[in-house]
Amino acid sequence: MIFADLSISLDGFIAGPHVGVDNPLGDGGEQLHDWMFAGRSAADSRAWEEQRFATTGALLMGRTMLDVGVGPWGDEPVFHAPVFVVTHRDGEPIGKAGGTTYTLVADGPDAALRQALAAAREQDICVAGGATVVQHYLAAGAIDQLRLHVVPVLLGDGVRLFSTATSGTDLTLLPGVHEDAGVVHLQYRMRR
Amino acid sequence: MTGRTIWHFTMSLDGFIADRDGSLAWMPADAGPAQMGHDLVPSVGAILVGRRSYDVGIRLNPPAGGKPYGGRYTGPVLVLTHRRPPAAAYPAIRFVVGELRDGLAQARAAAGDGDVVIFGASLGQQCLRAGELDEVLAHIAPVLLGAGTPAFSPGEDAVQSFDVLERSGPDEMTSIRLAPRARARA
What we know:
The complex is a heterodimer of chains A (192) and B (186).
Chain A lengths: L1 E8 L3 E3 L18 H4 L4 H11 L3 E7 H11 L9 E4 L7 E2 L5 E5 L3 H12 L3 E6 L1 H9 L5 E7 L1 E2 L4 E2 L8 E5 L5 E2 L2 E9 L1
Parallel strand pairs in A: 1-7, 1-8, 3-4, 3-7, 4-6
Antiparallel strand pairs in A: 2-10, 5-6, 8-13, 11-13, 12-13
Chain B lengths: L4 E8 L3 E3 L16 H6 L3 E7 H10 L16 E5 L11 E5 L2 H12 L3 E5 L1 H9 L5 E7 L1 E2 L4 E2 L9 E9 L5 E7 L6
Parallel strand pairs in B: 1-6, 1-7, 3-4, 3-6, 4-5
Antiparallel strand pairs in B: 2-9, 7-11, 10-11
């Protein structure tokens, strides 16, 4: 099962403006991840994040997300799975401890998806971001589930998750979602 | 005791309250009034709607067929406009020619102890930025439209945080009731 999992503002941004290595979620964007750490110690937060990826056999992400995330994710990232990075620039794989390797795929998102499928085998694949990558897989009908964590803020500017490329997609809201600490979790099955 | 001022809308998951033709036809047919919207109606004392919403609503849903809340609401409807009202005004609809504060004052007077509900993106955004909203009631339809009338307009002055008061689902229409937090004044 291939799922996209993202935190998003009420006005549709997955990051604020001016994303950079020193500003991974953009201006004001750190609010989008506060819910993950609310009321948890650092150790508990890490354990919680690892649990999120427990059944994930591979991840897909874009180059910008890797560039701003590779530092914060550290020497032993919580993914514990191969990460396939869609990029125009080739390069050597970046190996980390605990089973995470960042593999750069320069021949397009479909090639990256094929590699992720081969690596994940029976486990799930997580499309982690950014917006361009998610839009491509949504438009291609490759995503089975869209998991959005809607944070009750308006950012006014930033990286929009959806675009005109993602229209006409029918979704079914799945049960079992819940709200905690002021974030609204929405989980959709994509109808093909 | 006066009621709340509530901006009530349904938006697509990608944040549009109408498609590029202004139509509402994309809303799930069986969505009806989601439970939180249904529960709201008895407390509504007046509806204040923006001119564009009114024009689109009348064009797409002639009064015989389209009434606020499917006909369950029979109270005053006020349309805020800067322009001269149309000649053939429908008897139940009152035009307020003026600024936002005029529209709100008249709607609140008409509502008495009841709530004032705001319809329309432009009017809702203005009320939100002016600090005039007590609540936002948003229904999120499981549809991606790609383009249309955005519920929320961009810009630095759009920055706003909310408290989640209530949330329902999983119906097809997730409903979220929000209270705007105080905006930092420059």
